[in-house]
């Protein structure tokens, strides 16, 4: 059996429009992850990060469709399976997601304890059903681990909690069944700086306590990824353009887009509240049209005339991957 816990092979995904038009939101993404690895993914808004997350969980719900490729958790493919099958046999146990906005993830008319109990009930093996009191005890002991005001939080409706409590509840619920891997999609966006710190601390407490060990962490903030991730993949216009160790990508970027992104980050470092990369001139290409040549060429200060014609493939530059034939 492969030593990789997670394998993504040439994954492409598209949204199908009403008139048969396609938006190719994710193109040819490949990477593997080992047990215990933290992979950071960064890139501008609209570059396909959240779409990729749907594909990584096997949750391609129309209008999103897989175009090609495969995703495997411990060798088990998640592609071409029904949403019901993925919901009952994969989510929460094998792959769990911490979403971008906690408020949307929580049913507003259910108390936190009932939302969490639903998750446990939905994934119980036949014949092993837990009593309501046992479920509550399990929730209590998990929420207690993180210094939460457990009884009050579990007995509240989402609207009665602070934004930080809601996001920490979502994290507690998503990881209740000790998933093999966790995908956190901008888990701190829309939170203030001190709440962001609380949420990050909780995620890393969960890792330290061994509740899960392998994670994909998506954020706009490269400096944060540098501190938390082992490896970083940079996405641009649906493709991974560079992947290497956190040190390589942040301290010595090789793809012109990563360099531009780092420049934008450094210039905004003084303002901790700056949430999105700024000041890369121009805009990414439309993913609804066929793109010829390098996707970054129009905005690249190193572009040569050939860049607008030649499709760029991932290649090794030293021991990192870069999608630019001129990168050294
Ligand atoms: N339901 C949809 N139908 C058609 N196109 C969509 C749909 N959802 C997203 N897209 C398009 O897919 C592309 C990728 O969007 P996605 O939300 O995955 O980006 P993102 O990197 O997560 O952005 P952000 O950082 O803002 O969260 C964008 O061009 C977006 O407009
Ligand atoms: Mg997103």
Please provide a written account of the structure.
The chain has 328 residues and is an alpha/beta fold. The chain folds into two domains: 1-81 and 221-328, 3-Layer(aba) Sandwich (Rossmann fold), CATH 3.40.50; 92-214, Rossmann fold (3-Layer(aba) Sandwich). The protein has eleven helices and twelve strands. The protein has an eight-stranded mixed β-sheet, with helices on both faces. α4 packs across α5 and α7 packs parallel to α8. The relative contact order is 0.14. The model is unreliable at 268-275 (pLDDT under 50). Magnesium ion is lined by residues 49-50, 100, 185.
Task: Offer a concise description of the structure.
This protein is of the alpha/beta class and 328 residues long.
Q: Gyration radius, to the nearest Å?
A: 20 Å
| Regions with little confidence, pLDDT below 50 for 5+ residues | 268-275
CATH architecture of the largest domain: 3-Layer(aba) Sandwich
| Name of the level-1 CATH class of the largest domain | Alpha Beta
| Helix content range | 25-40%
Order of helices and strands: EEEHEEHEHHHHHEHEHEEHHEE
Number of helices: 11
Q: Please, how many domains?
A: 2
**Biggest sheet descriptor:** 8 strands, mixed
